[in-house]
Amino acid sequence: MDYLLILLAVSMVVSGLGWIYFIYFFSLGYGFGISALAVTLAVLFKDVLTAPTIMLCIVMFIFGCRLGLYLLTREKRSPAYKKILYGPDAAKKKPLFVVITVWIFCALLYVGQVSPVAFFLANKAAGAPVNEAWAWAGAGLMAVGVLLESVADAQKKAAKKINPKRFVDTGVYRLVRCPNYLGELIIWTGAFIVCIGAHCNVWQWIIASIGYIGIVYVMFSGARRLEIRQASAYGKDPEFQRYINKTPILLPFVPIYSVERHKWLQA
After folding, report:
1. Backbone phi, then psi, for 131, in 5-degree steps?
2. Phi, psi of 200 (to 5 degrees)
3. pTM score above 0.85
4. What is the C-alpha separation between 14 and 195, in angstroms, rounded?
5. End-to-end CA distance of the chain
6. Pair 267, 221: CB distance under 8 Å
7. For the segment 202-229, what is each residue's pLDDT rounded down to a tens digit?
8. Backbone phi, then psi, for 169, in 5-degree steps?
9. Angle between helices 51-77 and 132-162 (to 10 degrees)
10. Spatial separation of the C-alpha atoms in residues 216 and 250, rounded to whole Å
11. How far apart are CA 19 and CA 40, in angstroms?
């Protein structure tokens, strides 16, 4: 399990961007942390890399870099995002114990998210009979998720150029109200299913499951925060009310239209 300790060390270093500004634990530290973990996996297991596992590492690297650069650009160019990023709640100084706890939690979560790929490579290196069909399936699903996120960001940017004060309900936003978060769920579902072909032991399944459940919780929590912000901004708009009453918040074709009342999703 030495490779897990190396991954955790890398994750701690990169997610440590949060020491500069607290929210970076969840934003820049997350995006660039996943990219760093993808590179670390490729280096640690370079002798057993194959086409599908190379693809897995590449997709994770692209996901992380795209997210990190997108957030950096949005921070510099979007007044609305700056208001959220540097608002009173976000800028308020946190107790040292809280900062350290969040740092460790984030670093562990990011390792948990990439752990299925790590287990696949480690078990393959140890001679286990892994099934590369699942690595291909996972890489394909992750690529679909990255593509969905990219399309959602581009469509939102285009819609906001036309009407900055209106909510977005075109393109993939007709499918769900949070297509970015849906894309991320697809990405990490793709990573998780790699475990099926990785010949994982019980502890590996537990670690991978914790990482997957953790990021699913984070995505639903993010959808809840977005729902609350949008209700504050557009709640009196009849068009917006029609939109939210017919468009699922996160999962397509699943009639879950609101998660605001679920306070246990507050993170």
Report:
1. -115, 110
2. -75, 145
3. yes
4. 25
5. 30
6. yes
7. 999 999 999 999 999 999 999 999 999 9
8. -135, 25
9. 20
10. 11
11. 22
Query: String of b and e for 77-108 (b: at least 16 CB within 10 Å)?
Result: eeeeeeeebeeeeeeeeeeeeeeeebbeebbb
Q: Shortest CA distance to 142 belongs to which of 206, 215, 70? A: 215
Angular region, 253: left φ>0, alpha ψ -120 to 50, beta rest: left
What is the number of other CB atoms lying within 10 angstroms of the CB of residue 242? Answer: 11
Which residue is it, tokens 């800028």?
A: 91
Contact call for residues 16 and 29 (beta carbons, < 8 A): yes
Q: Rounded to whole angstroms, what are the CA distances from 262 to 220, 224, 227, 250?
A: 10, 8, 12, 14
Among the listed residues 41, 92, 39, 56, the one whose alpha carbon sits nearest the alpha carbon of residue 197? 56
Q: Which two tokens stand for residue 34?
A: 């996943």
Query: What's the rounded Cα separation, in Å, for the pair 131 and 234?
Result: 49
The amino acid at 205: W
Please give the structure tokens belonging to residue 81: 């995002």
- Tell which phi-psi region holds residue 32, choosing left (phi > 0), alpha (psi between -120 and 50) or beta: alpha
* pLDDT tens by residue, 57-94: 999 999 999 999 988 887 777 666 656 665 666 567 78
Ramachandran area for residue 82 (φ above 0: left; ψ -120 to 50: alpha; else beta) = alpha
State what percent of residues in the chain have pLDDT above 70: 94
Residue with tokens 């991954």: 7
**Token pair belonging to 46:** 């370079």
